[in-house]
Amino acid sequence: MNDHEHDTQATPEISVIIPAYNSARTLGLCLESVLRQRDSSAEIIVVDDGSTDSTLEVASAYPVKVVEMGDNRGPAAARNRGVEVACGELLLFVDSDVTLADGALARARRDMQEVGVDAVIGSYDDEPAHRSTLSLFKNLAHHHFHQRPNPEVTTFWGACGIIRRDRFLAVGGFDERIDGIEDVELGYRLAAAGAKIRIDPQLQVKHHKRWTFGGLLRTEIGLRAIPWGAALRRYGYLPRGLNFTRDQRLAALLAILLALSAAVSIFYPAAGLLALAFGAAAAWINRGLYGLFWRKGGVRLLVSGFLLQQFYYLYALFGLVLGLALIPSTSRARPLITTDRAA
């Protein structure tokens, strides 16, 4: 691994850590959004995770610390490596395909001034960079569930999440054996250790990812739902809040009933009435989400978003069951990063 330091910060309060793999298209936007609001109390660290495009060259053009991993080891390892060279007492993790809203850095710092708070996560904004139906659906759904009223959660979010360094080190950092929900799994260990994690709906970032249908299924099933099943088996519960609330579990049940009754109605038309009833209940329980789809994309996004949300529940449950059935429970995660601060 090679490190290049482009600026020197005297004992910064906050370290912004950005893992980057083949992120040349978005990394510059990300860095510019952070640099616009950085002051002398913050340092920026980009960890190039073995990119094969010009990510390293893009990072090296900015006044930030650049760390080379050498080979691709995944976001968990890249974030851990960033922490090893970080000097701040607060660690703000930011994905390379997002841009910070104006004032987000100061807001994150203020959030951590609340007594007893160990970590804070943010949200995507409601104006994603890509306007395809699928990209709007994914980003707006994420935004909606991160705007819900209960501020206390038992998960972490690597795209925009800030945590006290000592808390992070005490639980061993990100588990480098996990790819996909390594931030969620960190939240499990933080919660088990008694950490207080809050969500600030106004701590926002803009997502610059363009979703495709194939990418959606690979990510949502292979990197999220199946690992969630493994985590459920390992820890015995799903995270609290966000899209794991009781109403969302009921919404998942309604999606199953809607799909079954719609399939049966092909052969028994009378079952269509049941499908209408289940569909109406599904629309009502997520009326806030579908209202957001309507405001941002009209009838087209409302209809497409409703159908995609039902599909989401089905494939998420499928992946969850696979994770429960196929992936063995593992022992407690070992410490994964050094606890000695890099000079």
How many distinct beta strands?
A: 10
Question: Which regions contain 5 or more consecutive residues with pLDDT less than 50?
Answer: 330-335, 338-343
Give the name of the CATH architecture of the domain at 2-130 and 148-209. Answer: Alpha-Beta Complex
Query: What is the CATH T-level topology of the domain at 2-130 and 148-209?
Result: Spore Coat Polysaccharide Biosynthesis Protein SpsA, Chain A
Counting H and I runs of at least 4 residues, what is the number of helices? Answer: 11
Proportion of helical residues: 40-55%
Estimate the global geometry from the Cα principal axes: globular
Distance between the termini: 16 Å
CATH level-4 homologous superfamily of the domain at 2-130 and 148-209: Spore Coat Polysaccharide Biosynthesis Protein SpsA, Chain A
Element pattern in H and E? EEHEHEHEEHEHEEHHEHHHH
Share of residues in strands: 15-25%
Describe the structure.
There is one protein chain. This protein has 343 residues and is of the alpha/beta class. Helix content is 48%, strand content 16%. The protein has a domain at 2-130 and 148-209: Alpha-Beta Complex (Spore Coat Polysaccharide Biosynthesis Protein SpsA, Chain A), CATH 3.90.550. It is built from 11 helices and 10 strands. Strand 3 (42-48), helix 2 (55-60) and strand 4 form a beta-alpha-beta unit. Helix 8 (213-235) crosses helix 11 and helix 9 packs antiparallel against helix 10 (271-285). It starts with a strand and ends in a 17-residue tail after the last helix.
